[in-house]
Structures are given as C-alpha cells and as structure tokens.
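FAQ: What does a multi-protein file look like?

Like this. Sequence, then tokens, then the next protein.
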Amino acid sequence: MSIQNSLKQITSTQILKKKNQEKITMITAYDALFAKIFDPYVDMILVGDSLNMSFFGEQDTLSASLDQMIYHTKAVCNGAKRSLIVCDLPFGSTKTPKSALKSAIRVYKETKAQAIKLEGGIEVVEHIKLLVKNGIAVVGHIGLKPQLVRLEGGYKIKAKEGVESKEFQKLLEDALKIEEAGVFCIVLEGVSASVASELTKRVKVPIIGIGSGVDVDGQVLVWSDAFGFFQEFKPKFVREYLKGASLMQEAIQKYVEDVKEGKFPNEEESY
C-alpha cells in the first residue's frame, strides 16, 4: 500500500464523509515512535486504554488513569502529524456528564488530540451532548465494552442470535441515540458480523469495527495484536501481519551474542 498523498491533518468531517465511500483505517499507538511509523498510512490513531494491558501488563483496562492517557496521547501527537488522533477516556473518568466534560477538557488542553472516545450507549447520551456542545469531537463505542468486563464476567460477543434478537435492538437503539447526540463515528466491538452489517446500514455515521465482520465502514486493531507483539493470547478477530515478538527475540539474541563474543562494536562502529 502506498503512502497517502495529503500531508494535511485529517478531520472529523473528512471521516464522516468516508461513510459508504471509502473504508476507514484505524490502529492504536501509545508513543511517538510507533505513531510516526503508522501516521502516513492510517486515517485515525486511537490512544486506547488497551495500553493498560499491552503496554503496562495489567489484566484489563480498568486501572488506566486519565493522567496515563494524557501522557501517552501527548507522545502520539508528537509523532503523528496527519492522522486524526483519538484519546480514550478511561474507566471512572466519565461517571457523570460534568466529569466527562472535565476529563475531555483536560485532554484538549494538555494534548493535540482531535477527539475523545467514550464507551456506552443510551446511558452516555447526555455526556456526549454536553461534550459536543462544548466543542469536543466524540467517537462512540458500543457492543463489547472492555470497561464493563468485570460487570459482565468477561469479554462476551454481542447479538450472536442475529438481527431478530433483543441485543440487536438494544445495539441499534444505542447507535441511533449516540448518533443523534453528536458522535462523528462509532467503534463497534465484538458483535456478530450479520448484526454489524445491518447496523451499519441503518446508521448515518461511520461504524468502525473490531471483531465485528467486514461489512462495516472501517476497522481498528490494537497494534501489538496486529503485529505479533502481544503473546499472552490472540483473539479470533486478529490477523497477525508480522511476527513481531519472534523477530525481536531473534534480534536481541544476536545482539547479546555479538557483545559476548566481542563482535560488537567493530572498527567502523567505534570512535
């Protein structure tokens, strides 16, 4: 795939216009180094609270703090110049509309992120309305919501019984309500492909899927999953585009071997 031509920063309006026109690409990043690598190719970079697991080594996302999210978002913004940067609002930072606004204002003031992501459906409609009213662009997140993992007893796929199920009706209601509240796109996680396809047809804003089939408006993956660095487990929906951990292990072994055998540095690598 070639590098996208425009060096201008992608906007939420441009993302909206891609609905039914062009698939949207999103990947996570947590630092300037990887953000700079991804930036020329993807439409959006998500500084996800998934960093709490892949970057920090925790079992779930729940202990991620707003300070952590802001720190990593700053780093990503330093590396990426054209992708639309989205900062996840972590668990506990959006308990009320006012607390969500306070958290989002901190993100906007302390980073160059262009949007925040907020998990939830009907229950966060007033949060979204207040944020949008105050000039903050919002990405919604429905379906499997990682911040509810302890409440729901694990990561459970939604609407497995199809479009006739009550879960589909709830998802559709959530999507339409947060769309009306002002989100410019929605992350749809862990939903059966047929349901995701039908929901995408009924919603006017782009639907970005993760573990929700191909018939959506775009896809997002956690970078360490996509490139083979996270080895604890591999979700069914992940395609590994690189054996990253194996390559790094081979490289570090070679480095250690060269040092111990006195092969590094050589004459050209010495002053």
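And here is the next protein:
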Amino acid sequence: MKVLVINCGSSSLKYQLFDMDNEEVMVKGLVERIGIEGSKLIQEEGDDKYIIEENMKDHTEAVSHVFDALVDKDHGVIADLSEIDAVGHRVVHGGEKITKSDLIDKEVRAAIVEYQKFAPLHNPANLMGLEACEKLLPNVKNVAVFDTAFHQTMPKRTFLYGIDYKYYEEDAIRKYGFHGTSHNFITNKTAEVLGKSVEDLNMISAHLGNGSSICAVKNGKSYDTSMGLTPLEGLVMGTRSGDIDPSAVTYIMRKENLSPEEMENILNKKSGVFGVSGVSSDFRDLESAAKEGNDRAQAALDMFVTRVKRYIAGYMAEIGSCDAIVFTGGIGENSIKIREDIMAGFEQFGIKIDPEKNNVRGGCHVVSTDDSKVKVMVIATNEELMIARDTKSLVEA
C-alpha cells in the first residue's frame, strides 16, 4: 500500500509518500509561500532534488503541483496517481468530538470546521488540503489524524481550567493539548525499546522545538500535557510566551491600548525566547550568543530549561512511577547541552544522565547511566510515519 501524507500550514504544505509494505519514504517535499508571490515546491528523493517555482494561489493548486511532481517523468517516483491508495492528513484541532484518527465523513469534517475557532491559522488550511485531495483524487480514501486526539484520555482534574464551569459547558474552554501524533509515536517506540506493553508504560515525553510541549503518559495514555486550549500555553517557546499571569496580559492591553488580535499576535509571534533575548527564536543562535556573553540570551535559555524541569518533575509526581523520560523534537533530539542542563538536579531522585552516552543527536538512544532509577532517552520522532500507519490501518479496516 502506498500512502501519501499531507501536512498543510497556512501558507505551506509538507508531504511524504510512503510504501507501507516496508514503511519506507519513497519521496518527500515542501511547498512554500502558498498564496504569496514566490511560491516554490522542493521535492527530494535521495540525492535528486526537483524544484518548481510557480505562483500557487491556494492549496488546491499546491496539491496539484505535488501530484505533478510525484508522477514527473524525470523526477517522479510513481507512474500514475492511481498508485496512491490513501491520503493521511494532519489536522491540528478536533476538540472533544474527535478522540482518534478517522476516515473523513460529514461528522469529522464538521468538527474540523467547528474547531477553527481555536485553531484559526491551521484548521482552515488543513481543510483546504483535504478538499484539494478529494477533488483531484476522487476515488481515494482520506484520513484525518488530529494533534489533539491522543490527549482526549486526560481526566477532568488535568484538563479543566479554574474558571466558571459554564465556560467549559457552553464554550468547550479547556485544555486540549497538541503534538499528540508525536507523543503517541514516542510512547509506542519507548514501549518497544523497553520491551514493555504500552498499557504498562508510564513515561514523560518531552517534545522540544520551536514549539514545545511535555506530555505525562500513564498506562500508555496521555494523562496531562503542557499545551492548553491552544498551543500558546505551557513552556516558553521560540516566539510563544507559554505560561503567563493573565493579569499581565490585560495590563499590557490597557497600557498599550491593544486589541485582542494585537495581543494574541504579541504572545504568539513576538514573545518566548525571541522576546526575552532580542536575538532569535532559534536556540542555536541563542547558545552562540550566550557563549559570547549575551546575558539576555542566557536568561532566555535558563527560562526554557527551568520550565522544562518544572513540568517533568511535576508530571513524575502526577503519574506516580516513571519508566522513562524521553527527549524528542528538533531541540530534544539535537541539543546535547540543553538535555544535560534540564536533567541537572534530578540526581537527587536517582536519575542520572551519562555525558558520554548523551553525546548523540537523533536516532534512538538510552543516555542515562546504568544505575539511573529512570531511563533517560533520545528518540527521533516521526509524526508522518504515525499518520501513515493510522491511515493504512483505517483504510484496510
């Protein structure tokens, strides 16, 4: 079975074509600047790179170019689009109505539309990509894989906010969590590596990147997570503020005479380590600046590390026992020093990282000492493969 995985952003589209007989990536690509002058498709297959530079006014045109690239005589990997058996779509928000990946039907489509209110940049783009595939491949089944679905096992004690209960009942205001596809993949991979059944696994999954979240996994299911109603809550991130006193927000709005939309833009795009450091949202730039003596860059890194420590320690107490702490995502997989800094202090709980074992990037590694009471691991996430697996399973069923 060949499964095409589509991940649509507001002005971008990432894709991978999988041969699910061996779970190998046949080709992958990226379309940038959709609806903006200078649209570009870049497709890679081994050392071969194929580029299409042509303005694409919407996601339908972008998907059409993706299909053209897949069957291109010189750079394509399939002879005909009929070889694609199914398409899996990443969808950001499914609210409480979607608790698992599902074949697209009226109910699933309605949920994508309804929860645009909480993901106005992502859900509309996800829907456009879906509709484009339905139009161009009318006889192929489409599957939606939701970022929020994995976290729908959270109990009320962890997902409710301390506000009037009517806002939950009437408006569905609650914690939903994100990066669910990544946390799900890491949970299953950790169980495999440790030789445990998923149902017996308690762990902390730390997806650290420009957007970051921590997930407490209890008995193989999401029990708590750091992101909330939107991906703004939780850790301080690249440009997102993370946790903040709500009164600080209303104070700034009154002082600067800001609209809700302007304040949201500040919190999402001008805050985080970028706002604190004044240097960059890229942690590699922050580490370089800190080495050169930039105090604000160092403060931003210290804030990030401190927040991660706080969530990991708190979640360990929530789940009661912990088999593993797993780092993933761009920073989690690749920043040796940040992993080391985060785990410093956990020695008092018998959790120790081995500096030599920790000198790795990506892959799948145990980086804790042999006598550590909890395994500390680095596992490269693969959200696209998780989407492809769910798609294959649902279509075959």
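Q: Is there any per-entry metadata?
A: Some entries carry free-text notes. For the entry above: The two ends are 13 Å apart (CA to CA).
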